[in-house]
Every structure is written in structure tokens, then in C-alpha cells.
Write a structure and sequence with these properties.
This protein has about 290 residues and is an alpha/beta fold. It has one domain: 3-Layer(aba) Sandwich (Rossmann fold), CATH 3.40.50. It contains twelve helices and ten strands. α4 links the parallel β5 and β6.
């Protein structure tokens, strides 16, 4: 089902308390709980194509991560560590009063969703991950794949930047500065909505995610708990930041079945570049008997 302009008017807004941090979310539909977590940069509106279709079968909740749009923006790197971000998702799950949740995450939202499933296997029904390989696989590629190491240079720059610094060096050697307008340029045709949301957001908070969570050299091997639920991964193969080689070996960290869908000619925002394919695949996987 394609997104219609009426969605913004039909949505229900809610706010969830996560240990004193207010998390904004948009809800649609009734039924089993599905929580959607966007990436960097983004906000709940990233899921505009997927939400109407899922809402015919599920209670769909799209959150604004802390630091983004209408959610609170706590200061300090420690407030963007994974335990806090997992806690935000768990607060949302508890708020809606269901014992099980299906998580759908993209980019940093995928990282949070992977780690939530590891931390709360008893509450995670299924896991859908868009363009975010398993964290251990990313670490492996950073250590061994020069393409992935180069593609992640932006993250190392963020990690090393002092508080308040938004400047970066592009791959061509030119310098730039992180602004809402720059981030919004990735969302062709929707720039005004993203500029407005990103002006309400904390770019410092986005940088803090990388400082708190993104792997750092020398990329030593870490131990991750196994994911105990079925997993669907969808990966746009033209992603310039996350190489598809990181998909290899994912099954080593799972206890149940893995379904992998690769989408040629789709980039990092696969759910926007190939919205019909992604919606059909996710809906079919979640509703199959």
C-alpha cells in the first residue's frame, strides 16, 4: 500500500517516559505489536510507506529516537549508549502493554534492534533489519575489508570530534559541516519535512551515537549473545556506507532461521528507494502462516 498524504492527519501521537526521557511515537492499527526504529538521520516519517500496510494487521508504533524530532534530547555521550537506547524501546513495548514485540530497525535503529533482541529474547517475537548487518559482522569487515574501513571514515571523524564540532572531511578531501539541510538532501522530494524535523533534532546527539557505540580501532572481536528469534534482513546493495560483504556469516549469531533479501540498485534507505518491494517482503514475512 503506497503512502498517501492523509497519513499525517490520521496518525495517533503518543509520548512514552523512558527513565525521565520523553520518547515520541506515532501509532497506527491494532493487533500484535510492531515497533519501528529509524536510523541516522531520520525520524518516524521514514516509515511512511510501510506503516499503512502493516497497520492492517498489527499495532504499529514508529518512534523518534532520543535526540530526534519530538523526543527529548539529553546531553552527554553516555545518554546515547546502547543500554539507554534499548531502554527506550523497552519503555515503548511496556507502554503498549504487550508481552511480545516484533522489531523493525534501519541503520542505527537496526543496531538497537539487534541488541534489544539479544538483551530481551523473551520479549522479541521477530526481527526485521534494514541495511544494518549484525554488529559482529561489521566489526569483522572493519578489521579485514579496506572498502568497509574507508566507508566508515565518517564515523571515526565523529568519534574524534570535540563537543560542538560539526565539521567533517569528505572522501574527495573537501570539508563540510553537518546541518539539517545537508542531512535532508538525502531525502529527495521530501526535503522540507526533513529539514523541519532535523532542525528540531540534536545533531550533537546523532554524533554521540557514534561516539558511544560505533566500533573503534583495532576492532577486536567481541562476544555477542545469540539472537533467538527468526530474522529477516533486507539490504540495498548500493549502500555506500555498509558493504554487502558484512552480510556473510550472519547465521553464526542466530539460533533460528534467517531470511535474507538483497535489493540491487537500492541504497542505504532501501525502504524508501524500493518501498514497494520492502513493504511486500516485510508484510508477507510477518503474516505468513
Amino acid at each position: 500500500m503506497a503512502f498517501s498524504s492523509e497519513m499525517a492527519d490520521l496518525r495517533d501521537d503518543d509520548f512514552v517516559d523512558s527513565s525521565g526521557v520523553k520518547i515520541h511515537c506515532v501509532t497506527r492499527g491494532t493487533g500484535p505489536l510492531v515497533v519501528l526504529t529509524h536510523g541516522i538521520p531520520g525520524f518516524w516519517y521514514d516509515w511512511r510507506h510501510l506503516m499503512p500496510a502493516l497497520a492492517e494487521h498489527f499495532r504499529v508504533v514508529a518512534i523518534d529516537q532520543r535526540g530526534f524530532n519530538l523526543s527529548d534530547q539529553p546531553d552527554g555521550v553516555e545518554n546515547y549508549a546502547l543500554d539507554r537506547l534499548i531502554g527506550d524501546v523497552d519503555a515503548v513495548v511496556k507502554h503498549f502493554g504487550q508481552s511480545k514485540v516484533t522489531l523493525v530497525g534501519h541503520d542505527s535503529g537496526g543496531w538497537i534492534s539487534w541488541c534489544y533482541a539479544m538483551a530481551h529474547p523473551d520479549r522479541t517475537e521477530r526481527l526485521v533489519i534494514l541495511n544494518l548487518p549484525h554488529p559482529r559482522c561489521i566489526e569483522r569487515e572493519l578489521a579485514n575489508n579496506p572498502r568497509q574501513y574507508e566507508a566508515s571514515d565518517y564515523a571515526r571523524q565523529f568519534q574524534q570530534s570535540p563537543k560542538g564540532n560539526r565539521k567533517f572531511v569528505a572522501p574527495d578531501g573537501s570539508t563540510g559541516e553537518l546541518t539539517p539541510e545537508l542531512y535532508a538532501s538525502a531525502f529527495k522530494g521530501e526535503e522540507p519535512k526533513y529539514v523541519a524535523a532535523l532542525r528540531r533534532s540534536s545533531i550533537e546527539g546523532m554524533i554521540n551515537f557514534y561516539k558511544a557505540n560505533y566500533p573503534r580501532p583495532p576492532y577486536e572481536e567481541k562476544t555477542y549473545l545469540p539472537v533467538k528469534c527468526p530474522v529477516l534482513m533486507i539490504h540495498g546493495l548500493d549502500d555506500p556506507w555498509l558493504m554487502p560483504e558484512a552480510l556473510n556469516g550472519t547465521w553464526r549469531y542466530l539460533e533460528k532461521e534467517l531470511t535474507l533479501v538483497t535489493v540491487p540498485k537500492a541504497g542505504h534507505w532501501v525502504h524508501l528507494d524500493a518501498a514497494d518491494i520492502v513493504t511486500k517482503r516485510i508484510l508477507g514475512w510477518l503474516t505468513q502462516k
